[in-house]
Amino acid sequence: CRACNAILTYNSKRSGTSSLQQHVDFGCSCPAGAASQRQMLVSEYLLKPVTSVPATVKSQLSDKCVEFCFWDIRPFHMVAEKGFIDLAQELINVGASHGHVPSESVLPDPTTISWKCKVIAAMKRQDVVREISRNMSDIILTITCHYITPDFKLKNRLLIMFPHEEAKTGDKIQRELQQQLVSVLGFDAAVMNKFVWVTDQGSNIIAALVPYCHLDCQDHVYNTVFKH
User: Fold this and answer.
1) CA 110 to CA 184: how far, in whole Å?
2) Domain 58-103, CATH class in plain words
3) Using only C-alpha atoms, what is the Rg of the chain?
4) Which residues form the Hermes trasposase DNA-binding domain (predicted)?
5) Core vs surface per residue 57-75: b (16+ CB within 10 A) or e
6) Can you give the pTM of this predicted structure?
7) Which of 59, 85, 188, 212 is the most buried (most CB within 10 A)?
8) Percent of the chain with pLDDT over 70
9) CB neighbours of 31 closer than 8 A, spacing ≥ 6?
10) 199: part of which helix (H) or strand (E)?
11) How far apart (Å, rounded) are the C-alpha atoms in residues 2 and 24?
12) DSSP letters along 34-89, please?
Protein backbone atom coordinates (compact mmCIF):
# COMPACT_ATOMS: atom_id res chain seq x y z
CA CYS A 1 0.00 0.00 0.00
CA ARG A 2 1.52 3.32 -1.02
CA ALA A 3 -0.29 5.07 1.83
CA CYS A 4 0.78 2.94 4.84
CA ASN A 5 3.51 0.80 3.18
CA ALA A 6 1.72 -2.43 4.15
CA ILE A 7 2.43 -5.51 2.01
CA LEU A 8 -0.74 -7.07 0.63
CA THR A 9 -1.26 -10.30 -1.29
CA TYR A 10 -3.13 -10.50 -4.56
CA ASN A 11 -4.74 -13.68 -5.87
CA SER A 12 -6.61 -13.26 -9.13
CA LYS A 13 -8.36 -16.64 -8.77
CA ARG A 14 -9.65 -16.25 -5.20
CA SER A 15 -10.42 -12.69 -4.23
CA GLY A 16 -9.19 -10.57 -7.09
CA THR A 17 -8.79 -6.97 -5.95
CA SER A 18 -11.47 -7.14 -3.24
CA SER A 19 -8.87 -7.63 -0.49
CA LEU A 20 -7.02 -4.55 -1.66
CA GLN A 21 -10.21 -2.50 -1.57
CA GLN A 22 -11.07 -3.81 1.91
CA HIS A 23 -7.65 -2.70 3.14
CA VAL A 24 -8.22 0.81 1.81
CA ASP A 25 -11.69 0.98 3.36
CA PHE A 26 -11.05 -0.63 6.76
CA GLY A 27 -7.40 -1.61 7.39
CA CYS A 28 -5.27 1.22 6.07
CA SER A 29 -3.77 3.37 8.81
CA CYS A 30 -3.55 6.37 6.46
CA PRO A 31 -6.92 6.58 4.67
CA ALA A 32 -6.39 10.24 3.92
CA GLY A 33 -3.09 9.44 2.27
CA ALA A 34 -4.69 6.66 0.30
CA ALA A 35 -7.41 9.00 -0.86
CA SER A 36 -4.82 11.50 -2.02
CA GLN A 37 -3.23 8.84 -4.21
CA ARG A 38 -6.40 7.98 -6.10
CA GLN A 39 -6.99 9.11 -9.66
CA MET A 40 -9.42 11.99 -10.10
CA LEU A 41 -12.74 11.25 -11.75
CA VAL A 42 -13.61 12.86 -15.08
CA SER A 43 -16.59 14.61 -13.48
CA GLU A 44 -14.25 16.35 -11.05
CA TYR A 45 -12.52 18.10 -13.93
CA LEU A 46 -15.80 19.56 -15.15
CA LEU A 47 -17.31 22.76 -13.83
CA LYS A 48 -20.53 22.27 -11.93
CA PRO A 49 -23.48 24.28 -13.28
CA VAL A 50 -23.96 27.59 -11.50
CA THR A 51 -27.56 28.20 -10.46
CA SER A 52 -27.03 31.35 -8.39
CA VAL A 53 -24.62 34.25 -8.00
CA PRO A 54 -23.46 36.15 -4.90
CA ALA A 55 -25.60 38.97 -3.55
CA THR A 56 -22.94 41.53 -4.49
CA VAL A 57 -23.18 40.48 -8.14
CA LYS A 58 -26.97 40.75 -8.07
CA SER A 59 -26.66 44.22 -6.56
CA GLN A 60 -24.32 45.30 -9.36
CA LEU A 61 -26.73 43.91 -11.96
CA SER A 62 -29.58 45.82 -10.33
CA ASP A 63 -27.56 49.03 -10.65
CA LYS A 64 -26.95 48.30 -14.33
CA CYS A 65 -30.67 47.65 -14.87
CA VAL A 66 -31.45 51.02 -13.29
CA GLU A 67 -28.95 52.71 -15.60
CA PHE A 68 -30.40 50.86 -18.58
CA CYS A 69 -33.95 52.02 -17.81
CA PHE A 70 -32.68 55.54 -17.10
CA TRP A 71 -30.49 56.10 -20.14
CA ASP A 72 -32.80 54.41 -22.68
CA ILE A 73 -36.07 55.52 -21.04
CA ARG A 74 -37.41 51.99 -20.76
CA PRO A 75 -40.09 50.68 -18.35
CA PHE A 76 -38.83 48.88 -15.27
CA HIS A 77 -40.80 45.71 -16.02
CA MET A 78 -38.87 45.30 -19.28
CA VAL A 79 -36.14 43.37 -17.43
CA ALA A 80 -38.77 40.74 -16.53
CA GLU A 81 -40.03 40.28 -20.10
CA LYS A 82 -39.21 37.11 -22.04
CA GLY A 83 -37.36 38.91 -24.84
CA PHE A 84 -34.96 40.67 -22.47
CA ILE A 85 -34.41 37.50 -20.42
CA ASP A 86 -33.61 35.47 -23.56
CA LEU A 87 -31.17 38.16 -24.73
CA ALA A 88 -29.46 38.29 -21.33
CA GLN A 89 -29.13 34.49 -21.26
CA GLU A 90 -27.62 34.45 -24.75
CA LEU A 91 -25.06 37.09 -23.73
CA ILE A 92 -24.16 35.01 -20.66
CA ASN A 93 -23.72 31.96 -22.90
CA VAL A 94 -21.44 33.93 -25.22
CA GLY A 95 -19.30 35.03 -22.28
CA ALA A 96 -19.09 31.47 -20.95
CA SER A 97 -17.98 30.16 -24.36
CA HIS A 98 -15.65 32.96 -25.50
CA GLY A 99 -14.52 34.59 -22.28
CA HIS A 100 -14.43 38.29 -21.43
CA VAL A 101 -15.24 40.19 -24.64
CA PRO A 102 -16.42 43.80 -25.16
CA SER A 103 -20.18 44.05 -25.53
CA GLU A 104 -19.75 46.28 -28.60
CA SER A 105 -18.12 43.40 -30.46
CA VAL A 106 -21.06 41.08 -29.71
CA LEU A 107 -24.18 43.23 -30.11
CA PRO A 108 -25.33 43.73 -33.73
CA ASP A 109 -25.82 47.08 -35.43
CA PRO A 110 -29.41 48.46 -35.46
CA THR A 111 -29.50 48.22 -39.26
CA THR A 112 -28.58 44.54 -38.99
CA ILE A 113 -31.45 43.99 -36.56
CA SER A 114 -33.84 45.79 -38.92
CA TRP A 115 -32.73 43.66 -41.87
CA LYS A 116 -32.86 40.47 -39.80
CA CYS A 117 -36.37 41.32 -38.62
CA LYS A 118 -37.57 41.55 -42.23
CA VAL A 119 -35.90 38.25 -43.11
CA ILE A 120 -37.43 36.40 -40.15
CA ALA A 121 -40.86 37.97 -40.80
CA ALA A 122 -40.72 36.82 -44.44
CA MET A 123 -39.78 33.29 -43.36
CA LYS A 124 -42.62 33.19 -40.83
CA ARG A 125 -45.10 34.39 -43.45
CA GLN A 126 -43.95 31.67 -45.83
CA ASP A 127 -44.42 29.07 -43.10
CA VAL A 128 -47.95 30.33 -42.45
CA VAL A 129 -48.79 30.32 -46.18
CA ARG A 130 -47.49 26.76 -46.56
CA GLU A 131 -49.46 25.59 -43.54
CA ILE A 132 -52.65 27.23 -44.78
CA SER A 133 -52.11 25.87 -48.30
CA ARG A 134 -51.77 22.33 -46.95
CA ASN A 135 -55.13 22.67 -45.22
CA MET A 136 -56.98 24.60 -47.92
CA SER A 137 -58.75 21.43 -49.03
CA ASP A 138 -60.04 20.78 -45.51
CA ILE A 139 -63.39 22.27 -44.53
CA ILE A 140 -63.27 23.31 -40.88
CA LEU A 141 -66.42 24.15 -38.93
CA THR A 142 -66.04 26.01 -35.64
CA ILE A 143 -68.55 26.54 -32.84
CA THR A 144 -67.95 29.36 -30.38
CA CYS A 145 -70.20 30.31 -27.49
CA HIS A 146 -70.74 33.76 -25.96
CA TYR A 147 -72.86 34.09 -22.84
CA ILE A 148 -73.40 36.22 -19.73
CA THR A 149 -73.09 34.71 -16.26
CA PRO A 150 -75.57 35.44 -13.43
CA ASP A 151 -73.12 38.04 -12.08
CA PHE A 152 -73.16 39.79 -15.49
CA LYS A 153 -69.74 38.74 -16.78
CA LEU A 154 -69.35 38.14 -20.50
CA LYS A 155 -67.73 34.78 -21.30
CA ASN A 156 -66.33 33.73 -24.67
CA ARG A 157 -65.58 30.06 -25.31
CA LEU A 158 -64.29 28.08 -28.26
CA LEU A 159 -66.36 24.90 -28.00
CA ILE A 160 -65.01 22.79 -30.85
CA MET A 161 -63.31 22.79 -34.24
CA PHE A 162 -63.89 19.83 -36.53
CA PRO A 163 -63.34 18.91 -40.20
CA HIS A 164 -66.39 18.58 -42.39
CA GLU A 165 -65.48 16.26 -45.24
CA GLU A 166 -68.88 16.03 -46.89
CA ALA A 167 -70.38 18.60 -49.25
CA LYS A 168 -71.46 21.70 -47.36
CA THR A 169 -75.19 21.41 -47.90
CA GLY A 170 -77.60 22.80 -45.31
CA ASP A 171 -78.89 19.38 -44.23
CA LYS A 172 -75.42 17.92 -43.77
CA ILE A 173 -74.18 20.93 -41.81
CA GLN A 174 -77.23 20.78 -39.53
CA ARG A 175 -76.69 17.06 -38.92
CA GLU A 176 -73.01 17.63 -38.18
CA LEU A 177 -73.77 20.45 -35.73
CA GLN A 178 -76.25 18.27 -33.86
CA GLN A 179 -73.79 15.38 -33.69
CA GLN A 180 -70.96 17.55 -32.36
CA LEU A 181 -73.09 19.30 -29.73
CA VAL A 182 -74.85 16.18 -28.46
CA SER A 183 -72.48 13.25 -29.08
CA VAL A 184 -69.13 15.00 -28.63
CA LEU A 185 -69.79 17.89 -26.24
CA GLY A 186 -72.59 16.18 -24.32
CA PHE A 187 -75.28 18.87 -24.58
CA ASP A 188 -78.96 18.00 -24.42
CA ALA A 189 -80.56 17.46 -27.84
CA ALA A 190 -82.87 20.44 -27.29
CA VAL A 191 -79.97 22.83 -26.75
CA MET A 192 -79.96 24.00 -30.36
CA ASN A 193 -83.37 25.57 -29.79
CA LYS A 194 -81.99 27.55 -26.84
CA PHE A 195 -79.07 29.11 -28.72
CA VAL A 196 -79.13 32.26 -30.82
CA TRP A 197 -76.99 31.30 -33.79
CA VAL A 198 -74.85 34.09 -35.27
CA THR A 199 -73.22 33.27 -38.61
CA ASP A 200 -72.22 34.74 -41.93
CA GLN A 201 -74.74 35.00 -44.77
CA GLY A 202 -73.75 31.80 -46.54
CA SER A 203 -76.85 30.19 -48.03
CA ASN A 204 -75.91 26.72 -46.77
CA ILE A 205 -75.38 27.96 -43.20
CA ILE A 206 -78.68 29.84 -43.25
CA ALA A 207 -80.44 26.73 -44.60
CA ALA A 208 -78.89 24.59 -41.85
CA LEU A 209 -80.23 26.91 -39.14
CA VAL A 210 -83.71 27.55 -40.54
CA PRO A 211 -85.49 25.79 -37.63
CA TYR A 212 -83.55 27.83 -35.05
CA CYS A 213 -83.14 31.43 -33.96
CA HIS A 214 -80.55 32.95 -36.30
CA LEU A 215 -78.91 36.36 -36.67
CA ASP A 216 -76.54 37.60 -39.36
CA CYS A 217 -73.08 38.52 -38.12
CA GLN A 218 -72.81 42.31 -38.40
CA ASP A 219 -69.10 42.15 -39.29
CA HIS A 220 -69.89 39.99 -42.30
CA VAL A 221 -72.78 42.30 -43.24
CA TYR A 222 -70.50 45.36 -43.14
CA ASN A 223 -67.89 43.50 -45.17
CA THR A 224 -70.49 42.71 -47.84
CA VAL A 225 -71.63 46.35 -47.92
CA PHE A 226 -68.07 47.66 -48.28
CA LYS A 227 -67.27 45.20 -51.07
CA HIS A 228 -70.20 46.52 -53.11
Assistant:
1) 52
2) mainly alpha
3) 36
4) 53-112
5) eeeeeeeebeeeeeeeeee
6) 0.42
7) 212
8) 81
9) 3, 24
10) strand 196-199
11) 10
12) HHHHSPPPHHHHSPPPP----HHHHHHHHHHHHHHHHHTT--GGGGGSHHHHHHHH
